[in-house]
């Protein structure tokens, strides 16, 4: 990788902004962050691969090749609720609402 004038300018700006003593700490922190980010993204990919290889049959997770056929007429207890998966934003909103309710009830208990 040849060092052109762009790289020299970038290095000089970094030295001016952070100083020579803080650059190793900055680089170390960036390296740790990248390592954590890579580990998390690879685990997400692995989880996605695992989910596509399994199937839920009568409430149990079964590998895809071993899925058994459903009975012809399931009883009402066997029918899972039809609710679409929530988006992360919706999950966060609901958790925040629940936390607010819990805080309010804790405040009411404290005052009583």
TrEMBL record:
It is found in: Cell membrane. Belongs to the TatA/E family. Gene3D superfamilies: 1.20.5.3310. Part of the twin-arginine translocation (Tat) system that transports large folded proteins containing a characteristic twin-arginine motif in their signal peptide across membranes. TatA could form the protein-conducting channel of the Tat system. Residues 71-87 have a biased composition (Pro residues). Residues 90-101 have a biased composition (Basic and acidic residues). The keyword Aminoacyl-tRNA synthetase does not apply. InterPro entries: TatA/B/E, TatA/E. Residues 38-112 are annotated as: Disordered. The Tat system comprises two distinct complexes: a TatABC complex, containing multiple copies of TatA, TatB and TatC subunits, and a separate TatA complex, containing only TatA subunits. Substrates initially bind to the TatABC complex, which probably triggers association of the separate TatA complex to form the active translocon. It comes from the Bacteria. It is a single-pass membrane protein. Keywords: Cell membrane, Membrane, Protein transport, Translocation, Transmembrane, Transmembrane helix, Transport. Residues 57-70, 102-112 have a biased composition (Low complexity). The gene is tatA. The keyword Transmembrane applies. This is Sec-independent protein translocase protein TatA. It holds the Pfam family TatA_B_E.
